[in-house]
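Human: Here is a favour to ask of a fellow structure person. Comparing notes only helps if you start from a blank page. I am asking you to supply a protein in sequence and structure-token form. Write it directly below this note and I will take it from there.

Assistant:
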Amino acid sequence: MKSKNTLCLWYNGTALEAATFYAMTFPDSKVNAVHLAPGDYPSGKQGDVLTVDFTVLGIPCIGLNGGPIFPHTEAFSFQVATDDQAETDRYWNAIGGNGGQESACGWCKDKWGLSWQISPRVLTDAVTHPDPAVAKRAFDAMMTMKKIDIAAIEAAVAAG
């Protein structure tokens, strides 16, 4: 059964390339279908890839090759919860190593401009800790990082 809610992500002709990368990088991800344009449209011609149905970490998505008019911004991001440093490193390095760029506090962008938060569960638990002093130490440690260092977050939590 098709999902009632699907994320539509706008690409400038690279929806299939992006969907294929996500499918190779993340578990529970795949390219489900590729749909060609039945006629010419503002950013393409009949027979070009118009949309790609894909799944990222179990979330149904449609990649629309709509052209350059609406680029991705940080206002939308995928937040990926990781269980350990190896998983954090794997996703971070896959995105950055495929033409992406690092940002701060566990954020990075893929080569298509889509933002990702690679967020270890340890970090989420620490910055939402019921003791405000613990949460602040973890938050302050995170603010100094690009890729999240789980050992440094755990040290900040234990420093009290």
About this structure: The CA atoms of residues 77 and 115 lie 5 Å apart. The first helix runs from residue 15 to 25. DSSP finds five helices and eight strands in the chain.
